[in-house]
Amino acid sequence: MKELRIPQVFIGSATSLPFPDAHFDVVLTDPPYYDNVNYSALSDFFYVWLKRTVGDLYPELFATPLTPKSEEIVADPNRQGGRDEAKRFFEEKITQAFREIHRVLKPEGIAVIVFAHKTTQAWEAIIQALLNAGLYMTASWPVHTEMGARLNAQETASLASSIYMVCRKRVTDEVGDYSRVKEELERVLPERLAELWRQGISGADFSMAAIGPAVEVFGRYERVERLSGEPVSVEELLGLARRIAAEFALRRILKHGQLAGVDNATQFYLLWRWNYGRGLVPYDEARKLALSVGVDLELLSRQGLIKKNGSYLRLLGPQDRRFAGKVVPENLVDALQLAASYWGQGKEQELEELLASLTCPLETFWRVAQAVADRLPDGDKERQLLHGLLGRRDRARLQQRLPYER
Ligand SMILES: C[S@@+](CC[C@H](N)C(=O)[O-])C[C@H]1O[C@@H](n2cnc3c(N)ncnc32)[C@H](O)[C@@H]1O
């Protein structure tokens, strides 16, 4: 008969584990998600009452007046004195914790690390920490874990899933050649993305789930270098993966439509709505989205498509934009929003002229309109305007058919 082991619970910091080297077959952890929740501050609310009521039964758990803060792994600009400092602190501490996992894991052991975050900054930090700690990812699984109605799901775009990263101790110190890694990413990633797509993962969850397969490719190496010997950063490698994922997603969002007639600003618009709906997006996140499709945020801001809102950006809809005087659209998204605005105001004549003057194929125009409308929630003004426009197209098509075709 197998020996029955009684589970044991220890209290302490993940940055210094009370276990010998090469002790565990598996380590499974749900570490802090960058800046998402300041657990120690949250815990203080309960701690003060628990200390008074059951504190004497567990004196070692209630030794301090409030919960300990200094070892808490969280990116908190207020506590650490700025955003860059917060990123550095988180990366250092989570690397220490991952090094401890590496130390206590048997050579053939497995570490499962759960992570979820909608910003690439947080992902860069966690992936860099994994690699620094000598762990590499052999598989990754998106698992539906979050509730849509939770507090921070409301104004900014939120995620429905977390990624379970299955990691092992890296055994080689091989250096990856950038051109080969790039070629492998371009070959392997679309196959894995197709799998995620088939599973029905979409929007920000899809973009996040795409990170795993990319890290499975480049994380095998101790580091990746160009021919010149210059190292390639995790930020750049994830940027490349994002470009591949963006192109893949755009083709699917447009129902296998051609990207050729869809200019970069419109690709940006589509991806934004697909990833974040009407949510506010942190500036840096928007910048990376812009990079993935080759547009300049400043230019989009001058053209009136995006607007600053504190440290966040908002992508405007046709109802938010002022199209004054005779407007010549700069790109497809402008044309689409102008058309929706004309439709909303009942400006039939202007709408006809605009549709007749389009330089892109009409089919592309309608595919973009449909894709954006599908992504917005019921009751949304932009969705209503786009649906109105699409309804007008359907009626016009019906009228063009011969009576026996109707
Ligand atoms: C994402 S939460 C895990 C939540 C947990 N899976 C649950 O369902 O309750 C991350 C946890 O890591 C804890 N944490 C932060 N820094 C730590 C450290 N240095 N050592 C151990 N735990 C830490 C936080 O207090 C928080 O409870």
Features of this protein?
single chain, 406 residues, alpha/beta, 2 domains, four-stranded mixed β-sheet, three-stranded antiparallel β-sheet, 15 helices, 9 strands, elongated, binds S-adenosylmethionine
Rg measurement, Å: 25 Å
Specify the number of helices: 15
Bound molecules: S-adenosylmethionine
- The termini sit apart by 76 Å
Largest sheet: 4 strands, mixed
Strand content bin: 5-15%
Helix/strand order, N-terminal first: EHHHEHEEEHHHEHHEHHEEHHHH
Mean pLDDT: 89
Low-confidence stretches: 149-154
Global shape: elongated
Please list the strands of the largest sheet in the order they lie side by side. Answer: 1-2-4-3
Number of strands: 9
Structural class: alpha/beta
Number of domains: 2
Percentage of residues in helical conformation: 40-55%
Structural account:
The chain is α/β, with parallel strands linked by helices. The protein folds into two domains: 24-38 and 74-147 and 157-253, no CATH class; 264-315 and 329-405, no CATH class. Helix content is 49%, strand content 13%. The chain contains 15 helices and nine strands. It has a four-stranded mixed beta sheet with strand order 1-2-4-3. β8 and β9 (312-315) form a beta hairpin. The chain is elongated, with a radius of gyration of 25 Å. The protein starts with 23 loop residues before the first strand and ends in a 6-residue tail after the last helix. The model is unreliable at 149-154 (pLDDT under 50). Residues 13-15, 30-33, 39, 71-73 line the site of S-adenosylmethionine.
